[in-house]
Amino acid sequence: MNLNQSAPPVPPFGQPQPAYLGHHQSSYGGQPGSTTAPTSYGAYNGPVPGYQQTPPPGVSRAPPSSGAPPASTAQGPCGQTAYGQFGQGDVQNGPSSTVQMQRLPGYQPFGSAILAPVVSQPAVLQPYGPPPTSAQVTAQLAGMQISGAVAPASPPSGLGYGPPTSLASASGSFPNSGLYGSYPQGQAPPLGQPQGHPGAQPPQRSVPLQASSFTPPASGGPRMPSMTGPLLPGQSFGGPPVSQPNHVSSPAPQVLPAGTQMTGPPGPPPPPMHSSQQPGYQLQQNGSYGPTRGPQSNYGSPYPGAAAFGSQPGPPQPLPPKRLDPDAIPSPIQVIEDDRNNRGSEPFVTGVRGQVPPLVTTDFLVKDQGNASPRYIRCTSYNIPCTSDMAKQAQVPLAAVIKPLARLPPEEASPYVVDHGESGPLRCNRCKAYMCPFMQFVEGGRRFQCCFCSCINDVPPQYFQHLDHTGKRVDAYDRPELSLGSYEFLATVDYCKNNKFPSPPAFIFMIDVSYNAIRSGLVRLLCEELKSLLDFLPREGGAEESAVRVGFVTYNKVLHFYNVKSSLAQPQMMVVSDVGDMFVPLLDGFLVNVNESQAVITSLLDQIPEMFADTRETETVFAPVIQAGMEALKAAECAGKLFLFHTSLPIAEAPGKLKNRDDRKLINTDKEKTLFQPQTGAYQTLAKECVAQGCCVDLFLFPNQYVDVATLSVVPQLTGGSVYKYACFQVENDQERFLSDLRRDVQKVVGFDAVMRVRTSTGIRAVDFFGAFYMSNTTDVELAGLDGDKTVTVEFRHDDRLNEESGALLQCALLYTSCAGQRRLRIHNLALNCCTQLADLYRNCETDTLINYMAKFAYRGVLNSPVKTVRDTLITQCAQILACYRKNCASPSSAGQLILPECMKLLPVYLNCVLKSDVLQPGAEVTTDDRAYVRQLVTSMDVAETNVFFYPRLLPLTKSPIENTTEPPAVRASEERLSNGDIYLLENGLNLFLWVGASVQQGVVQSLFGVSSFSQITSGLSVLPVLDNLLSKKVRGLIDSLRAQRSRYMKLIVVKQEDKLETLFKHFLVEDKSLSGGASYVDFLCHMHKEIRQLLS
């Protein structure tokens, strides 16, 4: 497709302004500028002329790609959010911005970050005085150039703003002197320097040249063009786009000294600028990376002999082969922090189509004005290609991560419930889409045109309303379904099974009472907890008591059912030993109301630990237990949930019997995929029956050895349930974690017997689904249970051409039974933009969502393909996405530069984290069960959870003043960020580590641990002592607040520097090489660059 086609006379909704289209436009010096691809109003990205660019709000993870990363692959599954300011004496993460970045209202043209080998750039708001110094070093690493140049406040003598300095051009082929190529001994990579300026300069990011490029002032420091005067030739108006009031535009692009190489959309290279040019404005850099950081405190240069950037240039010295400076490459911490600063203060208003929301790591409020909140739906791109050819060319997956029952913060209202009475919700007759704000009323309001299939439908008389002068119904703002993106309908009896309204659901607690469960103290602990927990079953709205009924079963090789009818003085036990033909021995008295049977239930829970105290039975069954629970729900004619507490591999003679098939020798062979597949098909059949009954299974595992999680988790996975795993369970160490998870699991609001369907407007359709559910056909996602933590990820493909003006629509409809037994429909609607220019696609992507999709795609892939094939697929896809950008959207530049789209600059670092996660690259200590457990866990994670899981947060605790109780700014997940005089907290959503440096002050050790020296701290400690001092309160408070943010309780592990547990901790420092062979971030970036160059050549 032609990127340089001319623009329509009036840019339609979501279209780039004409000045950014690919015509040759004169630059301020009167010469033709480079052509840039049109930009859309990406919710973030590309600076406005005259504004500095900020990283797009959606920057986050990368699309799946794979290929063996360089030999050094760091291992560490974890994703994570963090902040990047730096506390006293601390290191800044990522290139420093001299001034805090801000996003100004207005529209942002495109931001591609050119990496000097790789760079991502924080944008800095330019003051009107001299700009922050920026620098350009071109270091040729394996044929890559890092570009950047130091900008002195006023040009040094002899350095006119003359022609761009020529960078040592890359040969285009990687020298074969090393894995990624190195330089001859003692020779540093060539540095591109302005003439007359000696010494090495800090690397700096270069960026695409804008269509309006500024020429430098003849004298004095560079300054920003003022936006108040008349528009200069070639400059487009940078006011806020009318169609996207909610967009925040990026700060002004950084001013770059002459000599900096710029990149932009394809087109002839910009003409040389001579110092004889008329006075004008300095060259602008789109999304430039900001001045580079100086060396960190506590660290010398990252590599021996490397210039410590920020120091005074000295005489050139011979340097050993130069590695890429980790501070010169895109920093997740910086991107997260910038997005928080730029987008955390204003509410995100959903009234405009195709806006990219703030990052998941940013705390923001949502105002629903017609599109669903990003808490319910996040997309990989908010501007999708109009044609399938364009989508194939870009290789960016088009997917939505949908969390239909997401919990909202207290400041946001839950979806309104609309009751249309016996007639039920209004739908399109042809495609069955539900009434929503995008439906068009015609003929004075008597009919409506469906926005999904264009069918014209009659409006029922009871729903009729007149239209105003704009064609809108006069009651539009009184009806949630006409004005909001998310709402609920009360369903009529037609939406119920067998045309009968459902009964309230039931919970059945099924407890393993074999020798292992009794000996570990699990049974006693659980029974004690259930006595009080049953008072907190989920309830609807302001109901005084829960409508949920409960039942109890214990089991080992046989099953014991309990009659806890309120009229009994003591509970009655009934034993079913024929596990091959399971039946429920009682109906009346098995499922009861908690309040009515409180005394009998308490008596039962007191008796169970005593009854089995002397058991010697070690064997257990598993499938018959689920079968029994499902049969009990069927007999009671209700949906519900089974809570299974299980300890060992089910080897007793019974349906679903398993054998130990754990074999580490299969790792890295073609048979490795069998480790992730279930041993037998019996569990899929059982799961299918459970889904038909609306029986959801939550499994709590307490294994001391291999239990075949891959097989046991099949039923929870297919019924929409959860799996919790507590290996080597000990009451004193694991009690808090287990009870916290159990309380949350029992109390959370669940939708039962659910069916979800995603409808789309003409041109795209849902083709693939990822998550914990069952599908009996190609369109309906069936969930026996669905809670507020679960997501369903949907991939879309083109089946026709899309229209830029009308955009694309998604509608997710979830039919479910509430905890009170009410049948409801929850509807979420989202409108996306469509584009004919690749630059618009790349400007509106959300990397965190991309990574969420790619991880799920890869984790499903290991079921059928060798792990190496899956990894290679991810790397290839990522390289194709970035190569397409480089080829079609970035301005011509040396092949030695790695150029990343602004909103995808974290794709490589995040993708590398996925590639070295335990599922795709296990270390020696990772068990087969652990891999299967993580695989099914990630399958239904939301975007925030995968973000922190793959890139963990590392928080320094002793850098900020003790009085400061706010969460400390995070640092990058790398060992070189650790100082042995400090204490750090690391979290990834499942684990919490407290790392204590060996040189921590004695007073800090005393305040936090209550001991007098580092050597007396207990390694592996899981609870901090409660001490009455500021530091202890602050750290314990921070741990509590982190736990409250996550859906599972994170157990704390104290790790001392140089201790044996430190190896486990370092596994989560994902920017470093991993012991299992995973590449470091720097190495992987080099590898990606090599892959991209191969694709381009």
UniProtKB/TrEMBL annotation:
Family to which the UniProt record says this protein belongs: Belongs to the SEC23/SEC24 family. SEC24 subfamily.
A biological-process GO annotation: in utero embryonic development
In its keyword annotation, does this UniProt entry include Membrane? yes
Task: Indicate the principal place this protein occupies in or around the cell.
Answer: cytoplasm
Gene Ontology CC terms, in alphabetical order: COPII vesicle coat; cytosol; endoplasmic reticulum exit site; endoplasmic reticulum membrane
Domain of life according to the entry: Eukaryota
Q: Where in the cell is it found?
A: Cytoplasm, Cytosol; Cytoplasmic vesicle, COPII-coated vesicle membrane; Endoplasmic reticulum membrane
Q: Where is the Gelsolin-like domain?
A: 964-1037
Q: Name one Pfam family in it.
A: Gelsolin
Record gene name: SEC24C
Question: According to Swiss-Prot or TrEMBL, what is its membrane topology?
Answer: Peripheral membrane protein
Keywords (alphabetical) are: Cytoplasm, Cytoplasmic vesicle, Endoplasmic reticulum, ER-Golgi transport, Membrane, Metal-binding, Phosphoprotein, Protein transport, Transport, Zinc
Q: Which residues form the Sec23/Sec24 helical domain?
A: 847-946
- What protein does this entry describe? Protein transport protein Sec24C isoform X2
List each copy of the Zinc finger Sec23/Sec24-type domain by range.
Answer: 425-463
In what ranges is there compositional bias, type Low complexity?
59-77, 184-204
Q: What's the source species for this entry?
A: Balaenoptera musculus
CDD domains linked: Sec24-like
Which residue intervals define the domain Sec23/Sec24 beta-sandwich in the entry?
751-834
Q: Where is the composition biased (Polar residues)?
A: 24-39, 166-176, 207-216, 274-300
Molecular function GO labels: SNARE binding; zinc ion binding
| Keyword ATP-binding appears in the UniProt entry | no
Q: Where is the Sec23/Sec24 trunk domain?
A: 502-746
Which residues does the annotated region (Disordered) include?
1-98, 149-330
